[in-house]
Amino acid sequence: MKILVTGGAGFIGSHFVRSTLSGSLLSPAGIQVTVLDKLTYSGSLSNLKPVADHPGLTFVHGDVTDAELVDAVVSGHDAVVHFAAESHVDRSLMGARDFVTTNVLGTQTLLESARRHRVDRFVHVSTDEVYGSIARGSWTERQPLSPHSPYAASKASSDLMALAEHHSHGMDVVITRCSNNYGRYQFPEKLIPLAITRLMEGRKIPLYGDGSNVRDWLHVSDHCAGIDLVLHHGRAGAVYHIGGGTELTNKELTGLLLDACGAGWESVEFVSDRKGHDARYSLDSTRIREELGYRPVVPFTDGLADTVRWYQENRGWWEPLLTRAGFTR
Ligand code: NAD
Hints:
Distance between the termini: 43 Å
Number of helices: 11
Order of helices and strands: EHEEHEHHEHEEHEEHEEHEHHH
Bound molecules: nicotinamide-adenine-dinucleotide
CATH superfamily: NAD(P)-binding Rossmann-like Domain
Strand content: 15-25%
Strand order of the largest sheet: 3-2-1-4-5-6-10
Helix content: 40-55%
Number of domains: 1
Structural class: alpha/beta
CATH topology: Rossmann fold
């Protein structure tokens, strides 16, 4: 089996590649994995270091919007697992052009190429943010899309392009929509690694508004196990939610991070709320549980403790990334 993983040098994609090649997921031994990644500020070859010498890994440095390159790379693969995206909501509020280009045009470029090359399966990795916000209860996969941020709008658009390929051309496309991920190797601009690394530097951590926004947190290994199940056993044309983690307000999460890092509330700076900040996301994951037997297995407290420890022990991973990105925090 030969799979193409786009965005495989990013946070979630690299976890998927490392797990696939180390045999901890369902793919057979001897699987060949090609990573196509532009290495933007959030992607790094250091994320693939543990499998850099694996004979099953091929890395291609390139852009998913480059139709000629994509066509050359897609050829010969049995499946595409598409992670590549601009992924940070705050950046999308400052300028959405890269989000539309990579997330929409890039997805369409890959889909058309995969169809031309008769790829057996295309897994499109998406997000709960495409639904907007929900005060009570949880969304099923039948919920109409109502994205609020430019990031979410670009992901919703790419989901619709993927479904259109299935409906119009009969292509075997499956979509996953997941809640917030956390774990090792996440670029330190997202809430959890930003907080840990800032506290390590003795700096304050920001908390948006009154901290009452609710997110469902899932360990990256549970997300990748769900994607892998969908890759091997999902139904063509279906959407699968991958949630079932731990719902927390941002204030509750901040309290847990402060405890884990040995800091107090004086290290928190309340900042004005993010524009259009969604109050709550919540996925109903009954379909993937009942159809594919999916179960998340990492308890949040264990996953968070491991994540905090990893950032504390791997300053040599995150500091150079921030310097390279010219990141001011
Ligand atoms: P990330 O920002 O860590 O990684 C994105 C990767 O895509 C990087 O390696 C980057 O170099 C690459 N990339 C960006 N533009 C590219 C382009 N034009 N061509 C080729 N490669 C390009 O993001 P992530 O958190 O790992 O998210 C991966 C996917 O999962 C995204 O599609 C995202 O929408 C989705 N998702 C993320 C979360 C989350 O909590 N992080 C939750 C649900 C869904």
